[in-house]
């Protein structure tokens, strides 16, 4: 009986020793990962990972743990209101492609605006992004000045409602003609000298007549 008790006690001691052995942490092994550049974290071997900006993809080779990274360069965005999405490398144009006018207005591709007497147009069909470009620019041409509201005498006085080609009877002796340049050119009718002494000039006529 005594020997049985002793055996049981020994078994308990061995079991306790075994439990203790299990409680000892296993020896540390070096992490089986690749370390990404710029503190971007680790990648397990055999896996690939992206940098936080989404532009760099790295692969950690199984076994050798040799890391290969490929960086992506983004082309200039064809808009002035591009947005950066976390984890997506290249900026996108949520409102579609657009241009900026000299005055700073945004014009969608294919659209035009009038600004400071300029007609500005956005056409990105043949847009070639240049290095360091500040984005697509609208192409502007000056607008022709609005036509005057009438033709003017050489002294500058305008006759409202007249247009090129019009004749204007200023008085019975003066006829004016409006040129293409909206200028009234006036001609005074030359009257022959009357051949009598009791001449008169009828109402609305230029030259004197004899009775
Ligand atoms: C300009 O010329 C027209 C035609 O000769 C005349 O009727 C008008 O009074 C003139 N205006 C001025 C401001 O001189």
UniProtKB/TrEMBL annotation:
Pfam families: VWC2L_2nd (PF23334)
Domain VWFC: 32-94, 149-211
Signal keyword on record: yes
Residues making up the signal peptide according to the UniProt record: 1-23
SMART domains xrefs: VWC
Keywords: Signal
Matches recorded under InterPro entries: VWC2/VWC2L, VWF_dom
UniProt keyword Signal, yes or no: yes
Gene Ontology, cellular component aspect: AMPA glutamate receptor complex; extracellular space; synapse
Gene Ontology BP term (one): negative regulation of BMP signaling pathway
Record PROSITE patterns: VWFC_1, VWFC_2
This protein's name: VWFC domain-containing protein
């Amino acid at each position: 009986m005594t020997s049985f008790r002793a055996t049981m006690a020994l078994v308990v001691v061995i079991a306790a020793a075994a439990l203790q052995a299990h409680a000892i942490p296993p020896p540390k092994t070096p992490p089986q990962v690749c370390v990404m550049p710029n503190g971007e974290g680790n990648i397990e071997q055999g896996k690939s990972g992206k940098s936080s900006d989404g532009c760099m993809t790295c692969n950690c080779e199984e076994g050798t743990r040799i890391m290969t990274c490929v960086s992506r360069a983004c082309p200039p965005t064809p808009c002035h209101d591009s947005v950066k999405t976390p984890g997506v490398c290249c900026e996108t144009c949520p409102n579609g492609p657009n241009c900026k006018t000299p005055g700073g207005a945004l014009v969608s591709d294919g659209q035009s605006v009038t600004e400071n007497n300029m007609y500005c147009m956005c056409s990105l069909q043949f847009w070639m992004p240049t290095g360091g470009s500040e984005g697509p620019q609208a192409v502007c041409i000056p607008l022709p000045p609005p036509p005057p509201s009438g033709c003017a005498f050489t002294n500058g006085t305008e006759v409202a409602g007249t247009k090129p080609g019009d004749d204007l009877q200023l008085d019975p002796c003066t006829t004016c003609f409006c040129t293409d340049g909206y200028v009234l050119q006036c001609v005074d009718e030359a009257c022959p000298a009357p051949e009598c002494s009791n001449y008169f000039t009828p109402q609305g006529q230029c030259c004197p007549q004899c009775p």
